[in-house]
Amino acid sequence: MLVLPAPPPDAVVRYGPHADHVADVRLPSRGPGPLVVVIHGGFWRAEYDRAHTGHLAAALADLGYAVAQLEYRRTGADAEGGWPATFEDVVAGVGALPALVAAAADALGRPAPTAGPPIVVGHSAGGHLALWYAAHAPSDAVPGGVLALAPVADLVEAHRLDLDGGAVEALLGGDPTARSAAYAAADPLPSISLRLPTVILHGTTDAQVPIDLSRRFVAAAGTVDSQITLLELPEVGHFELIDPRSAAWGKVTEALRSLRR
């Protein structure tokens, strides 16, 4: 995992009143590019923030994308996230960012992102939120595509496996029996065909989020939506997918290009 800090963003924009209602914006150095909204992981916990996807965001900006790293309320002793606040933030943030990034680019004298809905990229718990957003996006804010990197794509199974020591219970306020309605509402499975290009990348040796969660999600989602693709990466772990220096990075950028097409 990368430990050195990423280059600073070009701007920080605010989409709401809470301290976590912000996003780091990075703009491409050459020409206008499409907007990519990055949702970071960290098992939805407050101890992890958008900083750890900074290298990914900077690398995507170098490739010509306009990138906004969305922050959101998370779980923890003094945090205010969890169901439904975390999910409300994702809806509000992704919906607001196209206009906010365009305004930031204008203020900096840089080209605005190209027209069209953003592509949403999420890693780990952020991958869960990206898939969930695609299934629940308002009709006027549907993304142009989703790239989920090692997503926590099955919350009931993630709870059974006790991933990150109770992370799912912290997010949803209890177990699947006591909080069945919250688990159902937070499920990223689409209920109808989204007609939305969606690619999931998952390493076969991921120790933090087992690949079986993505396999289970795709098997279930495929019954209603044929545009969801799972690419399994042999001998790849969890953090390589957000590390531009890793051998897996080429697969990430290739998948992103496929969504643009």
Alpha carbon gap, first and last residue: 30 Å
* Total domain modules: 1
What is the CATH class? Alpha Beta
Helix-strand category: alpha/beta
* Biggest pleated sheet: 8 strands, mixed
Q: Which fold does the CATH topology refer to?
A: Rossmann fold
Radius of gyration, whole Å: 17 Å
**Helical content (DSSP H or I, runs of 4+):** 25-40%
Order of helices and strands: EEEHEHEHEHHHEHEH
Strand percent estimate: 15-25%
Q: Determine the number of helices (DSSP H or I, runs of at least 4 residues).
A: 8
For the largest sheet, list the strands in their spatial order. 1-2-4-3-5-6-7-8
**CATH superfamily descriptor:** Alpha/Beta hydrolase fold, catalytic domain
Q: Unreliable segments (pLDDT under 50, ≥5 consecutive)?
A: none
Q: Which CATH architecture?
A: 3-Layer(aba) Sandwich
Average pLDDT metric: 95
Keywords: Hydrolase
Organism: Asanoa hainanensis
Protein name: Prolyl oligopeptidase family protein
Domain BD-FAE-like: 27-218
